[in-house]
Amino acid sequence: MSIEFDNNLPIYLQIMDYIKREIVTGKLKAGDKIPSVRELAVELQINPNTVQRTFQELEREAIVETRRGLGRYVTSEESKIMRIKKEMAGDLLERFIHGMQELGFSSEDIASIVAEAVQDGANESNRSNG
Question: Which InterPro entries match (predicted)?
Fold first, then answer.
């Protein structure tokens, strides 16, 4: 695991985001064991309390669960993983739309640009597959 930390964001939030991305992209699958606090702290060269806070927040969001004596595991509930994926997509969309509005594009322009990009991507995919 390697993360380049942004000095402007709390480290525990960056680790949470990284673990969520690992889960929604399938690199960490439902039911997989995640590293221990100590392992992750050593690997990332950060304070174990920071990792502990990360895991507590992930547990609070029901993304990981502790199995007594066994460690922490990614939730096995696919609906929770899908919820995380949708939240991350919503965040991306919000930043994209805000950026486009700052550039002066109207909602209709943004929708048109996105539709063209999606169509171009579909055409590109069809050319490479066919």
Answer: Tscrpt_reg_HTH_GntR, WH-like_DNA-bd_sf, WH_DNA-bd_sf
First CA to last CA distance, the chain = 36
Q: Which amino acid is at 3?
A: I
The values of phi and psi at residue 126, to 5°, are -65, -40
Tell me the C-alpha distance between 106 and 111, whole Å: 9
Contact 33, 45 (CB under 8 A): no
3-state secondary structure of 74: strand
The answer to whether the predicted template modeling score (pTM) of the entire model surpasses 0.85 is no
CA distances from 124 to 69, 115, 119, 120, 130 (A): 50, 14, 9, 6, 10
Q: What is the pLDDT of residue 121?
A: 83
Q: Pick from 6, 55, 49: which is nearest to 35 by CA?
A: 55
Number of other CB atoms surrounding residue 21 within 10 Å: 14
